[in-house]
Amino acid sequence: MFDRQNGIVMGLALVSVFGGDKMSGLIAGHPMTDRYAVIGNPIEQSKSPLIHTAFAQVTGQDMDYARVLGPLGEFARTVDAFRATGGRGMNVTAPFKLDAFAYATDLAPSAQMAGAVNALKFEGNKVYAENFDGVGLVRDVVHNLAFPLQGKRVLILGAGGATRGALLPMLAQGPAEVLIVNRTVAKAEELAALAHQHQSGLLPVRGVAYADVGAQSFDVVFNATSASLTGELPPLPARVFAPGCLAYELAYGKGLTPFLKLAQQAGVTRLADGVGMLAEQAAEAFAWWRGVRPDTQAVIAQLTVPLN
Ligand code: NDP
């Protein structure tokens, strides 16, 4: 079934979002433009088609990029069908990041550490899997926001998939300290322990409960909880924001979330949301697939929702 208005591919009927010519080419079995897609459920909210189409245009790549609404419980069958029709790669979004992990034949270290996959590349029988969320976040902070993490005291709220993916790329920047705080403290502790397993040497990473954050303040505070998606605020004392602090909300397109509002009220002037992370992880996937890394500034400008 194809929802033409929204450009959504449903289930196993795989159709390009970019028009009838390519669709009929596919059906007739003619050689095709290279095909990519994002799979999720729901999927209509995904910005990936917009981003990758823009990247393809600026880099002159002959490819198209669809949305695939994966039926729940049918990830493997849906991806098999996409590959059978010439699919070269996919982005993976909720709720399929763990399914993609299980589906892969070759997991990159980033995906292994994250325990989740957000990009797939298909080559013959091989299914290569990556997780670019962490590297995308770090690149947005260090490159786009010009905020080096080296020597910084970092606080991360949340110990879900995004934090898992971000941890090693963040530690690679050489922060002075990384404190993970989570509602379910065992998950924060487990992540800290996992980071210690993955990297030798003394790592400045610990996991604690909100009640144990203490009186310390931090140079950068990441909200990697999903609280903002429901307008909630983790139980965070305003004293955690050090002078000159960056407050970074991983959710995007929500404007001034309760977390960013708390930071602003605490005097923080450097506020950011996850739109840059979104664009940068997409650029990483694009470069991995196509061998050329697109500039992200135009896409970030297009997708930015003002923080007020
Ligand atoms: P997960 O579902 O894997 O993890 C959610 C985390 O949020 C858990 O640690 C959970 O705690 C915590 N949490 C949820 N609600 C609350 C609350 N009310 N108070 C305190 N903690 C809470 O989500 P992800 O890690 O995948 O995503 C986290 C955020 O990052 C989301 O906002 C998502 O949109 C964003 N994101 C942005 C990306 C981008 O490209 N910009 C990419 C990926 C994610 P507990 O363990 O106790 O349940």
Overall description:
This protein is of the alpha/beta class and 308 residues long. The protein folds into two domains: 2-131, Rossmann fold (3-Layer(aba) Sandwich), CATH 3.40.50; 134-276, 3-Layer(aba) Sandwich (Rossmann fold), CATH 3.40.50.720. It has eleven helices and 14 strands. The protein has an eight-stranded mixed sheet, with helices on both faces. It has a six-stranded parallel sheet with strand order 11-10-9-12-13-14. Strand 1 and strand 2 form a beta hairpin. It starts with a strand and ends in a 5-residue tail after the last helix. Residues 1-30 have low confidence and may be disordered. Bound molecules: NADPH dihydro-nicotinamide-adenine-dinucleotide phosphate (NDP). NADPH dihydro-nicotinamide-adenine-dinucleotide phosphate (NDP) binds next to helix 7 and helix 10. The site of NADPH dihydro-nicotinamide-adenine-dinucleotide phosphate (NDP) has 26 residues, from helix 7 and helix 10.
Shape verdict: globular
Binned, the helix content reads 25-40%
Spans where pLDDT lies below 50 across 5 or more residues: 1-30
Mean pLDDT over the residues: 90
The total count of helices amounts to 11
**CATH architecture heading of the largest domain:** 3-Layer(aba) Sandwich
| C-alpha end-to-end distance | 40 Å
Q: What is the H level of CATH, i.e. the homologous superfamily of the largest domain?
A: NAD(P)-binding Rossmann-like Domain
Total beta strand runs? 14
Strand order of the largest sheet: 1-2-4-3-5-7-8-6
What is the H/E order? EEHEHEHEHEHEEHEHEHEEEHEHH
What is the highest CATH level, the class of the largest domain?
Answer: Alpha Beta
Heterogens: NADPH dihydro-nicotinamide-adenine-dinucleotide phosphate
The CATH topology of the largest domain is given as: Rossmann fold
Taking the sheet with the most strands, its summary is: 8 strands, mixed
Structural class: alpha/beta
Number of domains: 2
Radius of gyration: 20 Å
Strand content: 15-25%
